[in-house]
Task: structure prediction
Amino acid sequence: MTTATALTLDADAIGRISDRLEEPGWLRELRATWWDRAEATPPPTGLEEEWRRTDLSALPRGGELIADPPSLETVVPPGTSEGVILTDLRSAVREHPDLVRRFIGRAEGQASHAHFWALAQAAWTGGLFCYIPTGVSVDGTLVARTALPSSEGTYLPLSLIVAEEGSSVSLLEEVASPDGGAAWFGGIVEIQAGQGAQVRYANLQRLGDGAWNIGAQRVVVGRDANVTTLNAEVGSKVTKVGLDVQMTGKGGTSRLLGLLAAGGDQHIDINSDQDLHASYTTSDLLYMSALYDRSRAAFYGVTKVRSEAKQTSSYQECRNLLLSPEAGAEPIPVLEIETNDILRCGHGATAGAIDPIQLFYAQSRGLDRASAERMIVRGFFEQVVAQIHDETIRARVLEALASRIGSEEDLAA
Amino acid sequence: MALPNPALTQVPDSYRYGWHDAEQPRTTFPKGISAEIVEQISRVKGEPEWMTKLRLKAYRHFEARPMPKWGADLDGIDFQDIYYYVTGTDKAAQSWDDVPDYIRRTYDKLGIPEAEKKYLAGVGGQYDSEVIYHNIREDLEKQGVVFLGTDEALKTYPEMFREHFGTVIPPNDNKLAALNTAVWSGGSFIYVPPGIHVELPLQAYFRINTENMGQFERTLIIADEGSSVHYVEGCTAPTYSTASLHSAVVEIIVKKGARVRYTTIQNWSHNVYNLVTKRAVAHEDAVMEWVDGNLGSKVTMKYPSIYLLGERAHGEVLSIAFAGDGQHQDAGGKIIHAAPNTTSLITSKSISKGTGRTSYRGLIKVYPGCEKSKSTVRCDALILDEEARSDTYPYMEIDEEDVTIGHEASVSKVGSEQLFYLMSRGLSEAEASAMIVNGFIEPIVKELPMEYAVEMNRLIQLQMEGAVG
Result:
């Protein structure tokens, strides 16, 4: 299989992916359907509200499609129930075809990322499948890691996470690639939380400095389910991630957390849709950015409370710490509220430099300026970090951020 | 015997009764817009060539630009079904009987005098305040303050006019501003000399019998160094208009150390699309404040903006919007920080009732190098009914590190505990709701001149009783 000719992203490639993976007929058809949708849904022009702040014209579209990604490194805590599945999606198609078929490729993506969503549904070659059966609680943290060997090419993985009724899981997904080259990483993630399920999902992005990360995440929160997602955006040249949270079941809760530490010429743009369809739902978002050098963070988040959703509670908060005169931020939290029967609804956004008084205080206690700054940034991030209750995830995220904001050891030293 | 003063013999007949009743040429303009219509408007007004050219240039921009696709639904506007120039005589042809019932009822409930009612309804001129007008005018003239109709100002102060007109909002700024530039008529022109503080608020009201609340009025205010002025436009009582489109442009220049407050209370009848461009530039140490109230119209899209161009300039927008059944108030404010140490504050309070929709839309932009700039945006929305809707679109573009920028918004309904408490003290539900709403908008109402504040509170009460709108 590895000797096959290189694939580029076209209609022909879709069939050849299926050939190589010896996929069943239903999946071939599914891929073909999604390819048609991708063709029918043009890529963003840059005039769309969600795309005004990210220019896609330099997206390296012509790269070779990574057909044989490295295998997924997974960690499953000992003693985890038999029925729990954490594997790469290709293996899951072979080993659990009926289960995968039940969940894969059913939902439309977020309107802003519809084109990229459809592309990945059609042309995925990697990604993971995580399944937690009804009533099963996973103790400890599931970890899935992908370390791409090359800094080039096009990789569109699909990660599918299904937590059945009353189950509970923590999952950390990490992706990394080397610096250099120009790559297009278009990973999409779909999380389905059944009634009363508890899902904590963390995505740690450490792509190389030439990577374009055009991802999308869709979360469907069922009745009384509780989903927390955390996106830690550390790497990439350009990141444009769409978050789509569908509050479809009564009493559901979602919390979207984000930590962005950007430097150099990095450009990170997040757009979110918190769509509250059901009554008694809660959806909160907290994204925090520390922006160094000439980096830039944009955030465009929409909270939509539908007229049929009563007694909901929602909040969006976006905070930006500007650590260089050339850094920039564009936080735009939007509310569209179609009913008056709400419990709580609001948003807040800030942008600014480190408070000079804080800096002065820390320096007056003997820290040099750089250490004082790092300490304050870590304190700033603490608002999110304190909400990461999973030890493994917290440690990994802090480790990934250390290159920018320093580590505990630095402070102790 | 001395010869009669030639200047006196030239006083036109219309001045005989002591008021200014400009002689309008009896030209009838058909519906619709074209380069010919634009040229004709300019010709009828006897304008200098540069203005005719500017109008035509603006018209070409209007033609070329697409309708805005964002914001409110503007599909109901047919530009070819609108009169772009209506002479006074045509206007007077409207009859009191044509004024919708709900507006007449509101006048009665607000206790508005007969003459004023007719004036607001556009069916009669209002001459009663002539004495006050005269005194104010005399007082202003002594100080060197110019307060004229915009058309008159173009004739009287051609150089000052040309120097400033269209400099804050260029003809190609946006489609509707281009339309205004092409067909503008009426509005106010104010110049306040250096160091002069105009004590009383200037109101379009006092400049009687000119086009102060026209369809495409154009207002230009220049506050010279260290001066101050407060201008009040519109009124709390409903203003009836048969024209379905109101598209004004207001340009304000606040020079070094000067201070301008511009208060608008917009209460157009519910058939009007109110699409207005308002912008001010504030130089060093200047203060600009927009107090913007939107109660009427079918659709309003209006975002008063302030360009803080000089160090330590300060800008404020206080925005209040009330949307009843079928109304969409898409309002807000824009502040552009283009100099260091500039500060700004936007406070927005919006209320939506019935099937009404309010949208706050705003922008805070900080250019690189504008260090120590500070901005706070605070938006509160109150949704009174299940089908009412409220949106918040606060844009921020921050390109400077050393700044403090914050935005906060909340959306709420009238709390059942609050209602219960007030009703337990003997108030009806409508009275209790009105009281809560009045409390909600209090931070803005207290900034209004007293007579406006009183009327605003009464109006909210009427709205809450469901008697109007």
Notes: The mean pLDDT of chain A is 94. Residues 47 and 184 of chain A are 21 Å apart (CA to CA). The interface with chain B takes residues 49, 307, 320, 322-342, 345-353 of chain A (CB under 8 Å). Chain A is about 25% helix and 35% strand.
